[in-house]
Structure formats: C-alpha cells, structure tokens
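Hi,

Apologies if this is the wrong queue. I'm a grad student, and the batch job for Acetyl-CoA C-acetyltransferase from Ancylobacter vacuolatus produced an output file that my downstream script rejects. I'm not sure whether the problem is my script or the file. Here is the sequence I used:
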Amino acid sequence: MNRAFVIAARRTAVAPRGGAFRAVEAHDLAAPVLRACLDDAGVAPDEVEHVILGNALSGGGNVARLAALAANLPPTVPALTLDTQCCSGLDAIQLATRMVESGAAQLVLAGGVESFSRSPLRAVRPRVKGEAPVFYDRPPFTPWPARDPEMIAVLAKAARGLSRGEQAAFAIESHAKALAARARLESEIVPVAGLAFDSFTRALTPALCARAPVLHRDGESELDAAGVAVEADAAAVVLVASREWAEAWLKAGHPVCEVFQISSFAAAPDDPPGAIDHALRDRAAGLDWARLAVVELMEASAGQAMMNARRAGLDPARINRGGGALARGHPIGASGAILAVRQFHELAGEATGALGLSAIAAAGGLASLLMLQRL
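Support response: The file is valid. Your script probably expects a header line. Output copied below for reference.
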C-alpha cells in the first residue's frame, strides 16, 4: 500500500454565528483556503486531482464543487461534498488519504467548511394539500425518535461527575491557551473578510463563567454556556500527497507529516462520547500514548473533552496547546479539519518522528481519529 502525507494545511479564522463571516457564503470561505494550500506547497491548480470537503448545513448543491470553482481550480477537477456531521472534516481527509494510498490520486485537497450564518432554513415538505411545512433546526440522527436526544443532553451525559467549577476551569484554560498562542496561530490562518484571528477567544474568568446561563440540568450534571462550544463559521483544508510529492517538498526544507493512522468508529447512536472513547482506546497500531507530542481533542463541551482525555490517559499538557473549540467555536463540518490543521502546525515545531493525534465525535454515535507523524 502507498503511504499518504500532508504537505500543507491552512484554515480561516473561526467566527461565531452572525459575526465577521455573517455575509460570506460557505464556498467563499473555503475558496481562499484551497488556494493558500496550493500556494504554500508550490502546487499548480491543474495538478490537483480531487477536492473533498465535509459540510453539514449547506443543504446540498455540492459546496466542494462551488469552492473549487471559486478558487479558480480548473473545471476538470472533480469535487465531492460529504456529511458525517461533526466528523465531516476529518472524514474528508480520510477519503483523500485512501485515494492516495490506493494510487487513485497523487494530490487531493481535503477538509471541511461550515457557515451557520448562511445556512438555509430547512423544512419538512407537507404530506397533504393545505398542510404547512414544518421547519426544523437539525435532521434526525437515528431512525428511532426515542434514541435521538438533543446533543446538549448527550453532552450533559458525558459530563456526569464533573462540577460546573471543574468545567469552567477547563474552559478558562482553553481560552487562555488560545490567547497566548494568537501570534503563532497567524501562520495557519488565511484572512477572510478582514478577519485573521479567532474572534470568540477572550479572557474568560470564573466570575464570567458563574454568570453563564445554564443550558441543561439533569440532576447528575449541569452544563452552562461557557462550557459548550458556540455555533460558528470557518473553513479548513489540508493537501494530501503521495510519497513522491512529499519527498520533494521535504527535500526543499518544508514541514511534511505522514498519515500514521486515520480511522472511523461508531458506538450506540445516542452516545457519541462512547464512539470517541472507543477511538481513543483503539490499540490497532500498538501505540504507546506517551509517545504523543501533540493532541488536538474536540471540545464540543468542557465535560466531554475532559472525560475523553481522562479515560484515554492523555497528557493534559499536550492537549490543545493553542486552545480548543471552546475558545474558537464549533463550525460543524469544518471542526475536524481544523483539528487536523492545528495538529500539522503544532507538529511542525516538533522533532522528526513526533506523533500527533486529532479526535472528534459526531451525532449518531460516530467518531473519527487522525494521527500524523512529523518527517
């Protein structure tokens, strides 16, 4: 089997819903990031063989194709949009990896894009004449309504045993790490609509967290707004390449990472944290987790991230060194790809052989994991 490599990785800033990207269509978020990856790697647009983007909210229309055309890639370059909700961005990278490993392609742009701000209104078509359409915020994640809880309830389940104070401390640290890293994060961000930094990040304090409204309380756990990632807009893309391209780029003195492992997992559909727990515990690669230099763990909520890190035995000092989604926001289809971009740039500062990990869970009991190794 051929090996796959990441030779470039870029993203937009992350902006909360209704913020700096409120008038920017999803494909216009992704297009400059596609071009930036090509420019970074010295790749001509006509050398790209496929574009794959994850997206959950655009409502169809193949946003990857729109983004590729908006980026002025040749119209002969195919493009594919996939939807596995929060896992979409990592799953797009997984599909690109498999294409390169199989020999079907040498260069694939892959990642995710999401715009909560510009997402369409969605409604269920009437069944009979005279019946009004029924608008909805999200589609069903299982065929069984009784096993399809709201995601906030699932996140609360994951946080059982953690106090609001513990969750607040985690959120405060996420924001603090992101603020401290703002200058070095600039190298991975492509400015769009005048925004070149993650605009939600702030100096969060215990007092502010204490005033945050409670979003869910079930007797055993309590979630407030400070401990849950906000809806957001962003795009993130990596350039997945064959060994030939990777070796030439490495010889020129640029950072390159080999795809060490990329996988998808599933658990009970009403238990997404169970899927990510399964992913983090996977030992198929015989990995000693102490070898991990960089961990990018999705922070859908403080409690979910904390519990997953504890169960997997991950070193807190290596998790989300530049802050996490609590400090940025959660652009569903782009979130997994943002983790991959962050992992790539964190590994660029590590020694040869360093390993990194990105992991994210999704509605319906799904999870995806990406491991890179610095060459």
